[in-house]
Design brief:
By secondary structure, this protein is of the alpha/beta class. It contains 8 helices and 10 strands. It has a 5-stranded parallel beta sheet with strand order 3-2-4-1-5, sandwiched between helices. α6 packs across α7 and α7 packs antiparallel against α8. The longest helix is centred in the first third of the chain and has 13 residues. It starts with 5 loop residues before the first strand and ends in a 12-residue tail after the last strand. 33% of the residues are buried.
Length: 236
């Protein structure tokens, strides 16, 4: 029986193409197959790099159907590179079933690190990063989202929340219903792009700003939910 192939988890740019590493380019050109979340995005990337590697689609709609065939390819010794539309694959993106299956068949799973909206937002936030809680994407419906936010409020540390661009204002409204208006907040927008920006202030300030100034783009929301020291909230 052939030795299992390798599964590379290749990070791609989140906004600035120059963030794609030389190692990532080499891996994408050397593997037998590139597995992408959306064919249009994957094909555009490969065309821009001048790479002819074949592409297979793997997303939330076909993950269960596609994974067995990809695992069979790994068992036959073929090498695969998994990419997402932007950033690090598997992290809030499809691919977990493939990674778990690769581990079970003892195929090597190899990270090829790169741009990360989460890390980029955190290191520029000004908050202490000794500890933080990644809450990820919250429920779509307001009532369910508020239930989740109430649970998050009990976690007394820096909270990091992601959401789709068009739900920013709905998210901020719900957050302000649960957290104190004075909560120190940082909103990182369009990271690594020309229009990148960081909005810093109280939760009330930021909610008011975006209620008056509509925005549609990628963002990371960070809330300082640490236990107050000497009766005063820590500031960034």
């Amino acid at each position: 029986m052939a030795e299992p192939g390798k599964l590379y988890l290749v990070s791609t740019p989140i906004g600035n193409f120059e963030d794609l590493s030389t190692r990532a380019v080499r891996v994408l050109s050397e593997v037998d197959e590139v597995v992408c979340e959306e064919l249009r995005v994957g094909s555009t990337l490969m065309k821009r790099l001048g790479i002819q590697t074949s592409i297979t689609l793997l997303n939330e709609h076909n993950e269960s159907e596609q994974t067995p065939g990809l695992l069979k390819a790994l068992q036959q010794g073929r090498s695969l590179a998994l990419i997402s539309d932007a950033g690090t694959p598997v992290f809030a993106d499809p691919g977990l079933e493939l990674v778990r299956g690769a581990v079970l068949i003892k195929a090597r799973v190899i990270p090829v690190p790169g741009a990360s909206s989460l890390m980029s937002a955190l290191v520029c936030s000004g908050f202490s990063l000794n500890e933080f809680h990644y809450a990820g994407f919250l429920p779509r419906q307001s009532q369910a989202r508020q239930v989740r936010l109430k649970k998050l409020k009990e976690i007394r540390t820096l909270l990091v929340i992601l959401e789709t661009p068009y739900r920013l204002n709905a998210l901020l409204k719900d957050v302000q219903k649960i957290f104190k208006a004075s909560t120190t907040t940082v909103l990182a927008m369009n990271l690594t792009q020309d229009n990148e920006n960081f909005y810093r202030g109280t939760l009330a300030d930021i909610q008011k700003h975006f209620s008056l100034n509509r925005f549609k783009g990628e963002f990371v929301l960070m809330l300082n939910n640490e236990t107050p020291v000497s009766g005063r909230n820590k500031r960034v």
